Amino acid sequence: MLAQQLLNGILSGAVYALFALGFTLMFGVLGVINLTYGFYFSTGAFIALYATHYLHMPIWAALPFAAAVTGLIAIVIDELLLGPLRRAKAPELSSLMVTLGATLLLYSLMTAWFTTDIRRFPPAVFDGGAFEIAGLRITLSQILIVATTALIVGALALLLQKTRLGLAVRALAENPDAAQLMGVNAGGIVRLVSFISGALGGAAGVLIGLNYNAIQPYMGEAMMLKGFAVIIVGGLGDIRGAVIAGLVLGLLESVTAGYIASSMKDAVGFLLLVLTLWFRPVGLFGRVAAKRA
Amino acid sequence: MSEPLLKVRGLALGYDRTDAVKGIDFDVHAGGVVTLIGANGAGKTTTMRGLSGLLKPRAGSIRFGDREIARMPAHQIARLGVVQAPEGRQVFAEMSIAENLAMGAYLEKDPAAVARRRENVLSRFPRLGERLSQSAGLLSGGEQQMLAMGRALMADPKLLLLDEPSMGLAPLFVEEIFSIVADLKREGRTILLVEQNAQAALEIADYAYVLESGRIKLHGPAQEIADNPEVASAYLGM
């Protein structure tokens, strides 16, 4: 029973981590809290749904397809909403308001189009069966969730820490002026980061859709609240913090559901959030703002 | 006389409703050191931001070689070889010294060229070499200035823009920084030096412009400017 709870916790934790990763990357590099991020989660799930239903893609192909398309959508949304604000050097609050308004609009459009009915992946997606490992039943889609998350987290860490492009991304995050003086094309990096963030959000949406097999437009909103909790607990803008806090939240939720009450499950994240803000406001890995002039 | 490497005409810059630089002309010839001196708020740093493309000019032209760069984005100006060590150092504090230097050579794709430049920079600033893996944020102000200059040199600039390299530094560091600028000059680098420390700047420069409230008030060979009684009383504390 404990093992099963832990497995469930790791699965949802992996998706939280993936989702929070895109959110924190967007904040860390672009310096904006982009509330449309939850919309990418729903978008990814819907694109995968249509790709499997109508294009008859297998899920392992539909997942990267949905992530890539969502990434492209994220570039467009970022450029339309936040491009003008960046150019005008508008205060951070304006980006919050603009993305809040856009989020309401985007969800309304999505609901108008798809209704709020819960949709499911075609059964063929789940063909492939399940494995028994040490008495635990693990399905292929669960393996896909963990493998995708591990792969993406590893690839992103490698990109940011070991490549020239990653160096430019970190430089732009830290000091946009100095980065441009060194020849970094800020617009290009902004688009790259928008794409990666959108793709991460989209991929997380596909995986959650797969895990619960329930897809509807507002699924991104519930996730957004948890995403906020995760990135604040992990430390705003911190990649490692987002991954660890995501996994911790997933595990705590499933243990709570298993041993206390499943109705308490959704409260865990916010309890964690409040405790973090009380005792360590910069988050697990957040650095105290102490930049030298 | 040959065409200047950098030719600025009628350059005007500002923020919102304020005009910080009100139409200035100046030249920098290849292989020379030109200094732009003036009090706080005279428009020196604003001019530097305009040259680098971080601030779009309101009017005027900036020619670098045979290219007009006044309306070019900052990263393309850097690509042409105009590289700035900005005011306040602006090192990447959360990155290591090695990563800061790597960022300086961001546009150079040949690893052998990067390695050569790195060796050159580390022999010029041995302190940096001792602590390559340390975060730049932990360095002292003087060391950060060295890192900012080293980072700019990693780009092997055709025109090096130094904005207030001695600002806020202990006297010993000021001396060291200026001796490095003098070395760079001997090696034939073209430098535009913006300084509040007019005395030190005038000793090193070939030619000087005095900026006052966004206008060029005086210009001439550095020695003449240093001997000008008006400059002496206003900027040299004599």
What can you see in these coordinates?
The complex is a heterodimer of chains A (293) and B (238). Chain A has 293 residues and is mainly alpha-helical. Chain A has one domain. Chain A has twelve helices and two strands; from the N terminus they run αααααββααααααα. In chain A, a hairpin with a 2-residue loop joins strand 1 (130-133) and strand 2. The radius of gyration of chain A is 19 Å and the shape is globular. The termini of chain A are far apart. Residues 289-293 of chain A have low confidence and may be disordered. Chain B is 38% helix and 26% strand. Chain B has helices at residues 44-52, 74-80, 97-104, 111-124, 126-129, 141-153, 171-186, 198-204, 222-227, 229-235, and strands at 6-15, 18-28, 33-37, 59-64, 67-68, 82-85, 159-163, 191-195, 207-212, 215-221. In chain B, helix 7 links the parallel strand 7 and strand 8. Chain B is globular, with a radius of gyration of 17 Å. Classes of the chains: A mainly alpha (293), B alpha/beta (238). Chain A binds chain B through residues 164, 167-168, 170-171, 174-175, 177-187, 287, 291-293, and chain B through 52-54, 73-75, 78-79, 83-84, 86, 88, 90-95, 99, 102-104, 106-107, 137, 141, 144, 151, 155.
